[in-house]
Amino acid sequence: MSARSRKIVAVGARRFLAGVWHARFGLCAPACRRAAFARQVRLACEELGPAFIKLGQLASVRPDVFSAEMVFELERLQDSVAPVPVDAIREVIRADLGRYPEDVFESFDPVPIASASIAQVHRATLSQGYRPVCGEELEAGAHVAVKVVRPGIARLIREDIAVARQWARRLDHIAALRRLSLGGFLDEFERSLHDEMDLRNEGRLADRFAYDFEDDELVFVPRVVWRHSTRRVLTMEFVKGWRLTDISEAERSGVDAYGLALHGAEVFMRQVLVLGRFHADLHPANLFVTPDGRICYLDFGISGRTEPEQRIAIAQVLAATVYGDADRALRYSRELGLVIPPDREAAVRARVDALLRVTMGGPGPSDVRGFAMGFLSMLADFKITVPVGYGLLIKALVTVEGVARRLYPAIDIAQAAKPFATRLIAQQIADPAQLSLRLPAAMRAALRELAS
Amino acid sequence: MALTATLKGELVDDFMRFLASWALVHETADEGWKAAVARGGEATSGEMGSGPEAFVDGLSAMIAEEKERLKAELAAGHSEAPGSRADVSAKLDDLTFEVSELRGRLESMQASLDALNADPDEA
Questions:
Q1: How far does A231 lie from chain B, in Å, by closest CA?
Q2: Using one digit for the tens of pLDDT, what is the confidence trace for A246-257?
Q3: Number of CB atoms found within 10 A of residue B14's CB
Q4: How far, in Å, CA of B45 to CA of B35, rounded?
Q5: Taking CB atoms and an 8 Å limit, are B111 and A229 in contact across chains?
Q6: A32: part of which helix (H) or strand (E)?
Q7: Please, what is the angle between helix B2-42 and helix B52-75, to 10°?
Q8: Residue-wise DSSP of A283-299
Q9: Reported ipTM
Q10: Angle (deg, nearest 10), helices A308-322 and A326-335
Q11: Which of A157, A220, A221, A366 is deepest in the core (most CB within 10 A)?
């Protein structure tokens, strides 16, 4: 057993024992037990470094595989590690761009502005102007952020995945863990990480997002400098602004936080329901508010897709949820792949109805996060599988609420979604294909009413 | 002849009466519609869920907004029909974006190629 394997086993065992202790040796309620173990898993990931932090981040958008408690705990993972010495970063830039950063850029700051598990970011200025894929030209001297993959990280991650794979094979023998299909999850993780370490993918997604929202004056996406971007180096326009944690400072400078929170929710719905591509990793660190009052989107690592027929069902589920209609929500959830066995249907409907009343119909603002947690826990209790896309969407919607609340704590995201959902459904009803399907039934109902 | 003339007169009267009834119903409905649009326009976003009346008012206001947008589009000669100016313009935008995207990819590949040429040992 290698030293790294021993370390992983030691951390895993220690965190497991801590979990047993915090779960009162399994005597507390199931939700409390799951929460106690989820916390230890998060701490173990942070302790074990980049591969495990990324593994945890991927797990945090998969409520179809992991419990709701685990998913919401893992989203708190801190992806901030000690920076690599600048000379190592300079060597990566020289290998990928053929010259040292001082020769590529007009200036290059040796002190990183951010350092995460996969890459670190340095500030620089362009020596020549550049015409980007979207937006106006960047002038010579423009400030850019140069994101560079940490040297040797690919090898480290490969080694960690190999160890994790050995353990996944062993854990698959335990009946309670077999349903998680850890081997399959690791395969997916390896693919996703491979994509994330090729920074050109992030650049392409940023360009596509910028193009999709070119007509939206409140959305800002940094421009990519492809001339200085390769597999391990991504050069993007540097953005000045406030993180969502500093929103009060932005408000003091005249930024309309409530308007931005509302608009952010609409941008998300437009992505999901109209464009069919959505940013699925919208945690607060990936968002900025610019001094001219726009929302700046960063880091397009995890994205989701929706097909046209799914979008109609998603709009219906969304509208049913915000209007508190359990029947409708479940009917259209089936079209999104949720399979509810007939013998559990009445019980599921009753639970959803109660959950909607508590989380969405109470006197205070709606609680989308509470609804999602309760809904996913309920599905786990009834042993109902969560379809992959459905889970990703629920998680993304909760994140949007979280982000909107960071911008404006009193916002009611369900109320904000009502006009958009209503308009979308009205458009769908007015669609000639839908009308021709519904008209005969509507006429029959009207005639029955007249006859009685 | 006189009978025919009387019948014709009655028919014309009935037809006029029918049109007048239609105009009256339409006018009343239109007033109701305008009032609903006004009420809906004044409501805040949260009020739509407070009952069927509020919902209809809110929906009426949104439909009126959509109607204004449609009127503006028609006046500007925009239409999404295949072959229309707007359709060609949208396709042109998509194509321009794809070409720019391709240029970006080429520039990135050129940068990698230059790096390999600058340091053949790396290859």
A1: 9
A2: 788 888 888 888
A3: 10
A4: 18
A5: yes
A6: helix A30-48
A7: 100
A8: -GGGEEE-TTS-EEE--
A9: 0.74
A10: 160
A11: A221
